[in-house]
Design goal:
BirA Bifunctional Protein, domain 2, Endonuclease_MobA/VirD2, 3-stranded antiparallel β-sheet, 12 helices, Relaxase/mobilization nuclease domain-containing protein, 3 domains, 5-stranded antiparallel β-sheet, alpha+beta
């Protein structure tokens, strides 16, 4: 289950975005609340809702980005339209928007049911609805409403992580960091945090014991070498850049790298790739998280980086709307961007952990997570993390 605070905007373009979905039969306006006399009209145009919300926002000119736009998405079809409406109502109430005018729009154009919520950050008295730590609160509220205990989830994640074969402490940390956890070593114990709150801990000695007892599977390594060689000849290894997209369409910081080869191996074999890089420089190495075989390999043990990664004259930027980072995650280094299926529908065979989180301004890759601006008018493929490189929007590499 994921929740996202989507793009901020000075105007209420999210209304038009969502009503366009309805007009194309890709969405359904399932609830209109708090719009006063508008609710009694036989026909209401999108601009009528925009005008109403804009009039409320005008009561506090100090609030620049007055639009509130959020999304909740479960895995697949696990929640139907009515269940999502009920959940959205309770979530908005807990987030401080229960008395605000709002629109609920159910989207049905992806493999994952999801619902969008549009409202104003300014209330009827001209007060701003608190946005303090709202990305963290968004998940805490959702977890509470769905009965999810983050401490239990963290303990389960630690148990699963210890089942992997790894050879260094950093490799162990990567398994958990890619699920949205942040780990810090304090007095011989790793403190595990998520959404800014400590949810568990593990003695470093337990990690070291697994290092000494869990040498990498040589059989699996040889198997992966053959797989890599096979698909290296069939699939492009040219890397593309993954950058966050800033409000207004600007390009933000470099989040990571990927390639068609990475995508193919990830989707077909339960493998996750972490490219290691610094600043705007090209990767100097990579790590392979073999979720199917429960191994962590140094990439060069399987295929040299110079062969696994090709650097062309141009690269394709994948637009990840600002801010692309999961609350509580260990920074934004070496980000991995899954496709939509990996993002919102974790394979039942357990090849990927559920990261208890999706897209930001927001917050990130996960169950592997990700975020959004209609400035901007970004479609759901972007919102749900699908690579725009499929649309072949090339960009010259300025390295």
């Amino acid at each position: 289950m994921i929740v996202k605070i989507l793009w901020k905007s000075k105007t209420f373009k999210a209304v038009r975005y969502n009503t366009n979905k309805v007009e194309k039969n890709k969405g359904e306006l399932v609830k209109v609340f708090g719009f006063g006399a508008l609710e009694g009209l036989a026909e209401v145009k999108p601009q009528d809702y925009i005008n109403y919300l804009s009039a409320m926002a005008a009561r506090n000119p100090r609030v620049i980005n007055s639009q509130f736009h959020a999304m909740i998405s479960p895995k697949g079809r696990s929640l139907d339209k009515n269940e999502l409406v009920t959940l959205a109502e309770k979530w908005l109430l807990a987030m401080g928007y229960g008395d605000q005018p709002y629109l609920l729009i159910f989207h049905k154009d992806t493999q994952n049911n999801h619902i969008h919520m549009v409202s104003s950050r300014v209330d009827r008295e001209g007060n701003k609805i608190s946005d303090s730590f709202e990305n963290i609160r968004a998940y805490r509220v959702l977890n509470k409403l769905t009965g999810k205990d983050e401490k239990v989830a963290a303990e389960n994640a630690l148990v699963k992580a210890l089942q992997y074969r790894f050879t260094t402490r950093p490799q162990f940390l990567m398994i958990l960091e890619k699920q949205g956890y942040s780990l810090h070593l304090v007095d011989g114990s790793y403190k595990v945090s998520k959404f800014g709150e400590q949810v568990g801990s593990i003695d470093s000695l337990r990690v070291d014991e697994r290092i000494s007892n869990g040498s990498s599977s040589q059989e699996r390594k040889q198997q992966l070498k053959k797989i890599f060689e096979k698909y290296r000849s069939l699939t492009s290894a040219e890397v593309y850049l993954i950058r966050e997209k800033l409000p207004g369409g600007g390009q933000g910081r470099l989040l990571g790298y990927s390639s068609d080869l990475c995508d193919k191996l990830s989707s077909s074999f339960g493998i996750q790739f972490i490219f290691h890089f610094k600043d705007e420089k090209l990767p100097y190495g990579y790590t392979v998280l073999d979720h199917s075989g429960k191994n962590v390999f140094k990439g060069s043990e399987i295929m040299a980086l110079s062969r696994f990664m090709e650097v062309g004259q141009s690269a394709i930027d994948v637009d990840i709307p600002y801010d692309y980072s999961e609350p509580g995650a260990g920074g934004n280094r070496d980000q991995f961007v899954p496709n939509e299926e990996m993002l919102l529908s974790i394979p039942v065979n357990g090849e990927f952990f559920e990261r208890d989180s999706e897209l930001s301004g927001t917050s990130s890759i996960g169950d592997f997570s990700i975020g959004f601006d209609i400035s901007d008018d970004i479609d759901d493929e972007q919102i749900l993390g699908r690579n725009r490189r499929k649309q072949r929007k090339a960009r010259t590499n300025t390295r």
